[in-house]
Amino acid sequence: MKDQIEIKLRKKIKSMIILFMVFLILSGVTAFPIERELKFISSHSSFLPHVLQNWLIKIYEAVKTTNLQFPYLSYGTDWLAFAHIVISVIFIGPLKDPVRNIWCIQFGMIACIMIFPLAFIAGAVRHIPVYWQLIDCSFGVLGLIPLYVCYKNIRVLEVIHNCNKGLNYSV
Fold first, then answer.
1. What pTM did the predictor assign?
2. Phi then psi for 45, rounded to 5 degrees?
3. Choosing a second label site near 61 at 20 to 30 A (CA), which of 91, 127, 134, 153?
4. Does an H or E element contain 7, and which?
């Protein structure tokens, strides 16, 4: 019975971690072709509210102009993409041994929470509209959900491991 529960927990933990890693990598990789993406979405944005259409067109024009005159500034978004990929590597540890590497999940949860002050502080300083700051914050919320599920399941797995060792431990 405990073995079946442990197998189910490990599967759930692994699937949530893989889901998180995939979305983290995808959100980073999209920073590489940012000008082409903005061109596409700004020319196909008629379904969006007018204020959002204007914002996307404004951002596209800024990125396009910057890339024409100062292409080396886009190197910063290349590093952003790279950082997402590198950060995803940290989650290989909990894929292999979730109990011993629970700190990686905690690290990810803290990073997701840290998105909020960054979005609101840097967003205000950089004159980013509040609705866009909220969109940025949604990445923190969407990342926090699978990581929290992992965290809770790893804690249960930890209890099972300690019970198997004959230890009395509570979550």
1. 0.87
2. -105, 15
3. 134
4. helix 2-29
